[in-house]
Amino acid sequence: MITDKRNYVYWLKFRKDTGPLLRRFLFAASGLFFLAACLHLTPLFTKTGKIDVIFFFVDLGISVLFLLEYVLKNKVPLLIRILTLIGTAIFISVLSFLRSGLLGTGEISLAFIIISFFVFLPPFPSLISAILISIIPAIFGICVYLSILLFPLELGIRNESPREWYFKSVSLIIFSILSGFLIQRLRAKLIKNIVYLKESRAKILNSKKHIDKLAFYDSLTQLPNRYLFEQSIKNRISLGQNEAFVLLINIKGIKVINALHGIGFGDQILALIGSILKQYTSERPNTIVASLGGDEFIFWIENSSKTRIEDAIVKFDFNNNQTLTPDRLGHRLQYRVSGIHFPKDANDLNEVIRKLSIAMNVAREESKNHLVWFEQEMEKKIEREQKLKNQLEKAIENNEFKIAYQEKVNIKTQTVVGLEALARWRVSEYGEISPEEFIPIITKSDLIVPFGKNIFQKVVSQIPKLMESYGNQIKISINISPIFFLFPNFNEYIIEYLKENFIDPKILIFEITEDVFIDEIETIQKIVSSLRSIGISVSLDDFGKGYSSLHYMQKIQFDELKIDKSFLDEIATSDRNFLLLESICHLADSLGLKTIAEGIEREEQIIPLKKTSCHIVQGYLYSKPKILFE
After folding, report:
1. Distance of alpha carbon 10 from alpha carbon 8, whole angstroms
2. Whole-structure pTM over 0.70, yes or no?
3. Distance (Å, whole) CA 431 – CA 459
4. Closest C-alpha among 53, 88, 96, 52 to residue 67
5. Cis preceding-peptide flag for 123 (omega within 30 of 0)
6. What is the DSSP string of 493-525?
7. d(CA 130, CA 120)
């Protein structure tokens, strides 16, 4: 059944190609019949014989008929054209047999029509038709046998023999079967090859479409990729679009979702975001969206303004979509957006994306803002940061950092009880670089451990001089970066270095901030216990600035708390702030901790401090950081 259906499909597809073939066939036949008609006129020129008027008009009429069918093209149905050929061949054959008996014209006509059957008809109908046509000589033989048909003597005695007519009929039947078998086999192979070629071509086209999709679209989100986005923008520009806004969107919550539910679930979310963005832009013909891979998407927006775009960004929220609700995802999706004005801020697409990335870095830092527009100062900042980054490694290797010390003062005795070591760096091109600027660069550059060792070693080398200047009871505080604090064998390194330089560990206080404790509280417990066991004090810096300090105080034994400046700025004018400070001091006292107030800059802050148990202060009111020995 399947084979028959396939063969039928082959035949339908083959028949589709027989139309042009049949037209050419009709044109050739028209020419041949016209030539035959002309040959009947040769007695006019040779002056011998008579003109066969009947055959002249028959051949000429058939030639005109075929020519008309050729000219009318598809207006004449295929079946009518085939029947015309069959009818003409039969008419010529019968007329030839009646006029000339067994001369070859009739047989040639029948052989011609038999071949035509096998070319233009399906296999079984063509075989039946060919056999029926082959019986025509046998019919003439019966007519001769019954004396219904008598031929003149000049046509030959063979025409009066029924056996000759039967022999011709049998010959035509054999010819039909053999030629039909051969043509059908050849045609079947030809049809299969044609179908195979067409199917192969279709597969190649489908493969090409698939390859094009991979080349021009993101496989995960089904959005255009960067290449197609760039081509689309170039087309827009070539058509006269000379102004637009370009936005870069970074999805924040995907990494958390991957961690909670797996990468597969995160990919599903990105695919959903892609479909939402695609639907959003399909309703806005002046907007193009593409995926830059991962969790970043880029927009091209025409005929708009910064104000309208800012309003749209504020209103647009993935979490309002039913498919991306926080309850379903287990996490609220957040996004950062950077924008640029094309071609005002950049007139090249590569430059556009580069500057969008610069603005995106700012957007990530300014977590309160959803949209950050690119400004030239951002690029200058990046250039400055890159130059500083290139110089930092050399600065650490060449020991270029200097140590400034800020005094800690007991406000009751007005004596200096401690010093905090602070790193300082000067660059010839920029002058003094603030720690708030170079410390983050060091952290990003993975230089924090060699930097931490450099500062620690320099402070240790200056301790003898500090003791000469401030006395043997002085305490030296060093800020320890979270990365350095958690560095493998940190304790062993500290203990070994102090022994090598004959420094009493009791002189040192390590100040650590609570960000060091994230996910590492058990490790921190061991490190702090080990440090305290050899006499090094540990201080919890910036107490109250974060959210989990009380939890850490419950788990880890510290020696002192440094109260963050934010609690102390308004203690002279705010009863609430003073009560909060007083509560912190009571808490520290109950746990046996010293308290230190940092950032004291005004005299009026001292009066309420004296009412509490916090008597050690640090700030510009008493001392600014000073470089003492270099």
Report:
1. 5
2. no
3. 23
4. 88
5. no
6. HHHHHHHHTT--GGGEEEEE-GGGGTT-HHHHH
7. 12
